[in-house]
Amino acid sequence: MNSIKSFLFGIFALTAILLLSACAGNEEEASPEDNGGNSANTEQSSKESEHAGDHSGMDHSGTGEVPEGLKEAENPKYDVGSKAIITDGHMEGMKGAEATIAGAYDTTVYAVSYTPATGGERVEDHKWVVHQEIADAGEEPFKEDDEVKLKASHMEGMEGATAEIDSVQEMTVYMIDFTTSDGQEVKNHMWVTESELSPAE
Hints:
Elements: H1 2-49, E1 71-72, E2 83-86, E3 98-114, E4 123-130, E5 147-149, E6 162-179, E7 185-193, E8 197-199
Antiparallel strand pairs: 1-3, 2-3, 2-8, 3-4, 3-6, 5-6, 6-7
């Protein structure tokens, strides 16, 4: 009788162990799937944040050091030290912020499209790069569709990248200080154009 009880207990214990192992196996199999899904979502979000024209990788603050050869504007609409409102922002929280003019320069300014030198998705219509931030820039401005090499480092992978000129304009550009709507303080941001500013009230 005892041997039968022992035998039955052994079978019961073995069955319980097998069931527990099966459950654990299912959980282990589900985890990589879940993790894989999360990784895919993270990767997708990352790719979305790097879409063409996005400025999330932009180094919005600068040292204040301007490119060699860039000349100060003689008669800018907004004087250094004056205030202006940003009407067209390149980053979240920028539009509508009050800016302090840190520098004003007359130059040729370009919108450019390029594939980052560090790899990644192509950036379309990046605003702005000044003439003095392009390698081998001479006296004459570049033309639309010209292929150039960038010296600017506003965004990761920008310096050294080959770019295509999307637009060319002769105008005053400004270096500005401002605080975004979420409280981020930005110093010596390069660049905004005169058309992207309006007088502060």
